[in-house]
Amino acid sequence: MKLKIRGKKKLQGVVKISGSKNSAVAILAASILADEEVTIRNIPEIDDIKSQINILEEHGYSVYFKDNIFKIKPLKKIKPDFLSDEISKLRGSCYFMGACLAKYHHIKIKKIGGCNLGKRPLNYHFDGFKKLNIKVKEKENKDYVILKTNKIIANTIKLPFPSVGATINLLLASVKAKGTVTIENAAIEPEVADLGNFLISMGAKIEGLSTDKIKITGVDYLHHTDYIISNDRIEAGTYLILGAMATGNGITIENVQPYYLKSLIEILRDSGVEINTGEHSISVKRTQKLKPIDVNVGVYPSFPTDLGPLISIYMTQIEGTSSIQETIFDNRFSHVEEIKKTNVLASINGKTLYITGKSKLNGAYMCAYDLRCAAALVLCACMANGISTIDNIEVLFRGYEKPVEKLKALGLNVTIENKSCSV
């Protein structure tokens, strides 16, 4: 699939942000823990969610999904073998491990997929599981892992790194444990708190969300809930960066919590962008000459790794040299060789990317290799003169709801070609 964009710098309009991808994939996995039917609202209609729903239906769950509303009825017993090809497409499918261990005490699961961002081992997850009396069996020549326990026993787990995935999986596994599980050095990302609040709404006992020490006291029963997930701060950041580059009358982003984008907002303001925040909105407008920036990626509340490739496109619109240092993933700069085709001046030294602006960008044929790479290429195409074609654009639809419609509403000429390609 290919996306064609005719670049246009004078953009303006309103973008309504969808539900959080990273919250949704965790909460949908958690929904199988419920002992009654649950309803979850504001679920984005994206490919990762469609894959997750396919997985649930393959295991016999009765699922309803329409107009961003998801409903699921509980099953007392399933065969917890998660071996379909959908598993290998979706990094978030690893959360079925924690949920199945809590409910069924057993899971066989295919090795996890998702974007190729370098080494993304599950050792923090597995080490934590072992402290909860869970046996982990990995076989070198097999494409699956087996985890099982006779009962989950309370313990204190100190994570070597505040991994979002490990924190979520351990939280899920502990919800029905005997006693109280403590997770130290836990991730404090908003998506972890969103999942925790969903579980609390079903009757789970959880303390310390949004802190680095979470306590989970096991319960026997999780009841019905009707829960609204938070909006996607990474999608909001994407359009905020686009608005900071555009030279029109400004872009307003609605359905957003500005506090969760504090690091990005501070960087853009320091660079010379006018930003006004409301309770659930952000207005952004470029009003003066932009100043170079140096960005250090880190765990929340530092600058998020998911926005690293996107902020590098903003740097192309600034005279002088700016930099971004990546500290989490090894392969976060897959977009760099592609944006160079538009005349971007970029170089990588270790884990630091340097961008020298402001050169004239021209439309080019580019290929997307992962979700955030695709978003970065879209932003680059928006700022380039002429028409750009982005191949393998289907990866963008893994995490962005209705991106073509939202870009068109800002004044861009965007079309999709449904032709297959290889990368």
Cα radius of gyration in angstroms: 22 Å
CATH superfamily of the largest domain: Enolpyruvate transferase domain
Major beta-sheet overview: 4 strands, mixed
The count of domains is 2
What is shown here, in short?
By secondary structure, the protein is an alpha/beta fold. The chain is 29% helix and 25% strand.
Polypeptide structure, described:
It is elongated, with a radius of gyration of 22 Å. 48% of the residues are buried. It is built from 13 helices and 24 strands. Strand 4 (63-66) and strand 5 form a beta hairpin. Helix 6 (164-174) runs parallel beside helix 7. By secondary structure, the protein is an alpha/beta fold. It has helices at 21-30, 47-58, 85-89, 95-104, 123-131, 164-174, 190-201, 233-245, 262-271, 308-315, 336-339, 371-383, 403-409; strands spanning 2-6, 12-16, 38-41, 63-66, 69-72, 81-82, 106-110, 135-138, 144-148, 156-158, 180-184, 205-207, 213-217, 226-228, 250-254, 273-277, 281-286, 294-296, 320-325, 345-349, 352-357, 365-367, 387-391, 413-417. The protein folds into 2 domains: 2-18 and 231-417, Alpha-beta prism (UDP-n-acetylglucosamine1-carboxyvinyl-transferase, Chain); 21-228, Enolpyruvate transferase domain (UDP-n-acetylglucosamine1-carboxyvinyl-transferase, Chain), CATH 3.65.10. A 4-stranded mixed beta sheet has the order 22-23-1-24, covered by helices on one side. It has a 4-stranded mixed beta sheet with strand order 2-15-17-16. Strands 4-5-3-14 form a 4-stranded mixed beta sheet, covered by helices on one side.
